[in-house]
Predict the structure.
Amino acid sequence: MLLYLYGYIGLRPNNETLTMAKEYNISHTSGLCVNCRKHLQENDQFMAVLVEDGQDFQRQDWCLPCWQSADIGGIANVFGHWQTRVPRRQAEKKTFIDDEMLINFFQRLQGSTAPARVNLRFVLTLVLMRKKLLVYERAVKDAEGNETWTMRLKSDGELHEVIDPRLDEEKIAELSGQLSEILQGHL
């Protein structure tokens, strides 16, 4: 939260009033009562107190029972206070993943023979197919029964071979979650 304070400085030579503004960064709730150290829960009401600390301000959070029993005059350098509540947690926003990044990741995994990378590339193939960025052309089985798909990128018509590792739905779901975390930078 930003706090702007405006102060009267004086008169300029042309009799215009000069005011100055100073910006202060005030932290969000700490989630703890400064007095009893109780954790403030989602949607709890509490008092936020702004205390002058030299050239800066510090925020203190007080649960309502502590605030009601406190000697407010005994709190040094109080600049202001207000009642508020702990915000509700919002569901994590889905991160937009650029199609170019997906295609780039798909292309970088080409030629990998490590099982984990083959599996990840296959799941990425399914994602790109669903987004209609990659088109299935054909499948070829080798002598051992392993299937390789030939896929065409819609953007440039380039053909790519993708090994089908024969994953079950549970494994695909697990890998989809890992892929999402990788692309969002959480791993």
